[in-house]
User: What shape does this take?
Amino acid sequence: MTHILVVDNRADIRMSLSLLLESHHYQIVEADNPQTAQLKLKEQKISLIILDMNGHLDATTEQESLRFLAWLKSNNISIPVIIMSTWHNVELVKQAIQLGVKNIIEKPWRNQQLLHMVEQQLSLASLQLENDKFKQQLKPSTAELYQWRSACMLQLQDEIKALTNSKANILLTGDSGSGKSEFARQIHQQCSEKQHAWVAVDVAAIDHSLFDKEMFGDNISTFTEKQNQHLGYLSLADQGTLFVHGIELLPLNHQKKFLQTIINNEPKTSNISYSHDINCRIISSTNVDLSSLMTNNKFHKDLYKCISAEILHLPPLQEREQDIIPLAQFFIAKFSQKYQRDYCELTQGAQQALCHYHWPGNIRELSQLVERAVLLNNNQAIDIEDLRLTANNPNVELPLMTLREAEINLIQKALLQTDNNIPKAAKILGLTKSSMYRRVEKYDLA
Assistant: This one.
């Protein structure tokens, strides 16, 4: 529930605001002075502040309110503030504006006007938070990348070097879990776009009804709206790289819009009234045969041509034998740092088991197995038993275990097989989605 902090030294004003706002499903937190308000902010997650600037015939209270606004600003507290002030106190309002306040309502307030302002400010704050999350993707990644050793991957690295000064769109193919997302990031970091944005889009995670907004951004009609617009993925990726993971999952109508964008070099849809030139490399990935989808009219042929100027295929982990042990050691170092554990070496037996395993889940499966081994291991080395490869191999008989352990193993296997798609995993195990979600939460498998 949304919590609104009402700061006013008059109990009757606080009560009136509480009754009004609670009738519209807001949770009210009251403070009779700015000092109490500071304590409330430390105790409770607040989404909006309503601050009365005019004490009841008390100039001291007005100065306390200004000091409270200054405190918010100095502590970088970005919670939106609506101040209430009488019409004649212009100087006080000017000082509040200088402290960053943008939302002012005159006393006595009109209920509908106040409710509209509250709704508007909460909506803008939510939009700002969403855009901030998007902008995090624009920051260069400092994560260490694994250096490949197998011949097939070194050949792919050579092909990437040939694309360094090219803007050609790239299609990555390969089995689920083969590392297409990380490989796409490597392409970005080795090419000319590396100084600009890297934006990753998981098609499976986009609500199809919100596709236009997510990909192209908000409908813009006024300057004010432009200042608070929702930035679409294409705008965020301008001059950089847009990585579209699971391109085959785009519905046909969205495929046509995406194709139009690539051809025209600007996002244009029926409900967007502005155009913004874009210039980014598009890297797409898929784990299915797009040619068969095109044959069945489930994938647009012209879109395929646009996204596949260069096609790079990632082989399954089983074909990268020289990388299995070094990659496992890379993950041990990564997860040891993450969970603040001492680095553990792989025993000879564990290394042999890793090399002889068939890896149906590819790199993702290796990463998950190593992460679990690091997290649960209390020894100086990781042995075969710590990897629990038999629990992931359908050709090996499972040892006796508790029902809880068996259920966890089955759920992990189903999630692995479905690329962590919980509804699909539930279907494999004969469970309802809600039952599957409960089990994933219960066993902390998310």
Remarks:
- The first helix runs from residue 11 to 22.
